[in-house]
Structures are given as structure tokens and as C-alpha cells.
Amino acid sequence: MAYSEKVLDHYENPRNVGVLEDDDSVGTGMVGAPACGDVMKLQIKVSDAGIIEDAKFKTYGCGSAIASSSLVTEWVKGKSLDEAAEIKNTHIAEELALPPVKIHCSVLAEDAIAAAIDNYRSKKQ
Amino acid sequence: MSDIKLPIYLDYSATTPIDPRVAAKMSEYLTIEGNFGNPASRSHEFGWVAEEAVDLARQQVADLVNADPREIIWTSGATEADNLAIKGAAHFYKKKGNHIITMKTEHKAVLDTCRQLEREGFEVTYLDPEENGLLDLEKLKAATTDQTIMISVMHVNNEIGVIQDIEAIGEFARERGIIFHVDAAQSTGKVEIDLERLKVDLMSFSAHKTYGPKGIGALYVRRKPRVRLEAQMHGGGHERGMRSGTLATHQIVGMGEAFRIAQEEMATENERIRMLRDRLYNGLNDMEEVYVNGDIEHRIAGNLNISFNFVEGESLIMALRDLAVSSGSACTSASLEPSYVLRALGRNDELAHSSIRFTIGRFTTAEEIDYAVVLVRAAVEKLRDLSPLWDMYKDGIDLNSVEWVAH
After folding, report:
1. Within 10 Å of residue B125's Cβ, how many Cβ atoms?
2. Does A19 sit within 8 Å of B391, measured CB to CB?
3. Strand intervals (E) in B216-315
4. Looking at this predicted complex, what is its ipTM?
5. Apex B163 CA angle, B158 and B169, nearest 5
6. What is the structure's pLDDT at B66?
7. Minimal CA–CA distance to B158: which of B183, B128, B181, B124?
8. Which of B381, B390, B392, B393 has its CA nearest to residue B319?
């Protein structure tokens, strides 16, 4: 299978790999399942002003799944939670030129953002 | 390491390059300067020479498996040989019974042929292997009924390389008067085959897994006791009516030469390949959470099928672009399909997804193996650093206890 240059770039040099120290300012989303072949863990660190200051990911999955989550960590940084929630799988798929069989990777990345935001908000309640 | 040519070919169970000695022989049977005649032409020299070449090749194939050359039927490959054997015998013996037994880990050429026979009204039992990939003879015996007319079990598995005990299965089948077919596409030149001793009635062969050309294979059809087949390909009555079609002399000559070389060099070659396989295995075995798929003892020398837990197979293959290996999961479809062979062994989805098949052959070098070890270790390490599952494992979390948000 041929990968786009952007997928290869994120796969070779993934951005923001890692784990954030868990506290009230951090939201963690984990989506997917090992049996399906991909699991994404996305973490966001949110400032008092409600801006995402930092993001980290870890992904078990194919190259497109790794690239999707790496890209998302770049995109959410500096955004408010509402702005981050606006990122849709179609944006991700378009940016990475994902083929149809890999669209589910971008869907998973969108789900991961939503899960991380939910987790952060539930801590704040 | 600088003189290593990339990518490194470690997929000898998919196909082998043609041995240069084989290619040289084949090229003598193509052009006007060579022996291009139709072996079925009885009226002139061109035909006679071609027929002689086919006869010699038939003898060479028969010699490798200790059979009579009259028991060798040329086909287009092992897939056609499997089809001819299973459909041909099922159709011929259908008055005796309608039950066939095979295994879940067989090649698709056998499984799909059996599915077709089911559509025609036959009943097929697909036996599970043990965890090591081998067949439990007692389970075979228990599955046999008075309607059973055929057992089909492969000699060497294409994915995990395990060698089935076809001697014991043959003894049982003969005792019960059941036709025994063996797909031996992966075993010629790797495991000794003595058809005078083995009670096998039908055996499928392929040339291109044994340094011969693609597009040619053969079916062994036992003469004593005689096994009958209904032809699947009709025409000029070639191959004693069992398989019509003009014989592809150059392909046949290639298969003969490849099998001759296999017989001559098998013992020393196997030793060398086993050494390389062990070198690869020892280079990877000390990593954490690494599992060999299939029995390590009853296994051909050149196969190492290994799972790297918590690493996804497709990303691993992507990281190993300099190695031509095959993965246990087919990643071309949206739903990842883990290997049905590994699933049949009882491997869970994650381990099946993370498996890589290395197959080593005639032209593999120690330098290539050492290079592969370095690449694989680095790739697995990198992907585990990226893997949330690896972190969870390291934190002592049982992944089976997690409620996953499936999608």
C-alpha cells in the first residue's frame, strides 16, 4: 500500500509522543480496541483560560492511525476546547490524504479529541 | 553491511527466485534454436525431443519423492493439483460416501475446493489444530465416519511452517480405506518424502516454492493401490486423460531441474538454512513479549513466524520496508482480518495482528540476517514506545480486563 508523504512524515517523526502527568488540568481520551487493531490515547493539558496548552499521544495501530493522532496533537494546541471539538475526521483525512480504507483512523482521532475533552470537563464538574 | 542489497528478501514461502541453473535449462526449450516442439507431436523429431525432455523431468520429480514417474501428472501449479485431487477423487468415489475431512489451517486452494464440494452436497469437517499447529490423530479418528471418503492434510503449513505427521495419518487412512491427499507445495526440498513408505494416495506439488518457475506443478496419483480421479480439465486426453492441455515443456523441464537440485542439495542446504533461522530467532528471542507461532521442533528449517505483542502488524511492516516479509494480518481492507491460521491455533487477535513471517532460503546470507535483526529490534522498540498498550502492560494492567470503546 502506498502512503502519502504526510503520513510517512508523521510516522517517521511522530510529534508530541508521550504521557502527561495526570491532574485536574489534564483530560485523557482512549478510544479503539486492541482486537480491532488500533487504540489511541490522547491527552490534553488545559490552561485556566480554557486553552489547550499541551497535547500528547500514544497509538497502537497502523501508520495512518499513528499519523492521524500525531497530526491531531499539533492541531489542538493553542485552541479552546470548543475550537478543538470542531476538528472533524474529514479535515484529518484530507490533510493526510488517507485512502478510503483508512478513513476509520481519522474517525478514531476525532473520537479521541472528544473523549479527552469529555474527560477534562467531567473533572471540572 | 554496506554491500547488502535492499530490500532483503525473506519471503521464500511466498515464492522463490528461479535457480540460475534452472533458468539456463528452461531457456533451451523456447526458441527456434532450442527444443520448442510439442511433446505430443509423434510424427517428427521436434516432438520426440520435447517428449524426451518431459520424460526426464517426470523422472526427476518422481525421484525426489521416491515415486514411479507414471504416477506424476503435470498441472499448472499446486492449486490446480489440489483441485484435481480433491474434486477428482470426490466425484469419482461419491457412491462410496460423501464425507471429507480436512483442517482449518489448510491453504485456500484446499479450503475453497472443499467449500465448492459442500455446495455440491458433500459434507466437510474442518478440524482445529492443537495450539502448536499440529493435528491430533485422535481427533481425526473421532471425526471419521463410514461415509468418509477422503482426508486432506497439508504436509508443511505455509504460514507457520509446521510439519504434520503424514506417516501416521496415512497409516490410519489406508487401514480405513480412505483416500489420503497431501498438499506438499511447501515441503519439497525441505522435508524428505518417500512415497514408497508413506501411505499417501494423492500429493500436490509446486515448482516455484522450490526454485523452479511459476505456473507449473504436479499431482502424484498412486498406482498401487490404484487411485482413480474424474478429470477436471477436458481436451486432448493428455496425462492419461487426467489433465488435458499441451504440456509446457520449458516449465516442466524447469520443475524437473529444480527438483533434481533439491534432491542433491537438500541435506546441506537445510543445515545452512536452519543455522540462519536460529541466528534470526536468537537475535529476537531475548526481547520481551515475543511469541513463536507454531511448534518449533516439528517445523521446516527456513520458517520463523513470530508475534511481537503490543505492536500492530501493519505499522511494523511499514517500519520494515527494507525487509520483504509477510504479515499475519491482511491490512488491505477496512476491517483488519487477522490470519485464519493463527486464529485456528487459538492466538488472540492482538497476537495474530502482530505476527511476522520470516522465511529463509537458498540465497539468504548471514549478513542479511544480522541486518534484519537490527532493523526488527529497532522497529519493535520504536513502536512500543508509541504504544499505549505497552505502557499498560508495563503498569501491570491486564488488557483483557479493560472495557474497550470498540468502533
Report:
1. 18
2. yes
3. 217-221, 290-292, 303-308
4. 0.95
5. 120
6. 98
7. B183
8. B381
CA-nearest of B154, B123, B127 to B140 is: B127
Residue from B214, B153, B147 nearest B184 by CA:
B153
Instruction: Report whether A28 contacts A116 (CB < 8 A).
Output: yes
Q: Which segments in chain B show pLDDT lower than 70?
A: 1-2, 328-336, 406-407
Catalytic residue flag (residue A62): no
pTM of the model: 0.92
pLDDT of residue B121: 98
- Express each pLDDT in B211-259 by its tens digit: 999 999 999 999 999 999 999 999 999 999 999 999 999 999 999 999 9
Q: From A104, which residue of chain B is nearest by alpha-carbon distance?
A: B334
CA distance to A20, B22, B373, B377, per residue, from B282 (Å): 36, 34, 9, 12
The three grid cell numbers given for residue B321, joined into one nine-digit string: 520496508
Question: Between vectors from CA B233 to CA B229 and to CA B238, what angle results, nearest 5°?
Answer: 80
Q: Mind listing the pLDDT tens digit for each residue in B15-69?
A: 999 999 999 999 999 999 999 999 999 999 999 999 999 999 999 999 999 999 9
| Residues of chain A numbered 54-73 and touching chain B (CB < 8 Å) | 58-63, 65-66
* Predicted pLDDT at B400: 84
Single-letter amino acid, residue A10: H
A100 chain-B contacts, CB cut-off 8 A:
334
- What is the dihedral angle through the alpha carbons of A65, A69, A70, A74, rounded to the nearest 10 degrees? 150
Query: How much is the pLDDT for B127?
Result: 98
B9–chain A nearest CA distance, Å: 18
User: Which residues of chain A have a CB within 8 Å of the CB of B387?
Assistant: 58-60
Q: Which residues are registered as beta bridge partners of B148?
A: B99
Q: State the DSSP code for B12.
A: T
DSSP state of B179: E
How is residue A54 annotated by DSSP?
E
Size of interface A-B (CB pairs under 8 A): 92
Dihedral angle, C-alpha A113, A119, A124, A125, nearest 10 °: 120
Report yes or no: B386 at the A interface, CB cutoff 8 Å.
yes
B285-288 own/partner pairs: CB under 8 Å, 24+ apart? B287/B377, B287/B380
The cell 501493519 sits on which residue? Answer: B314
- Cβ <8 Å between A62 and B385: no
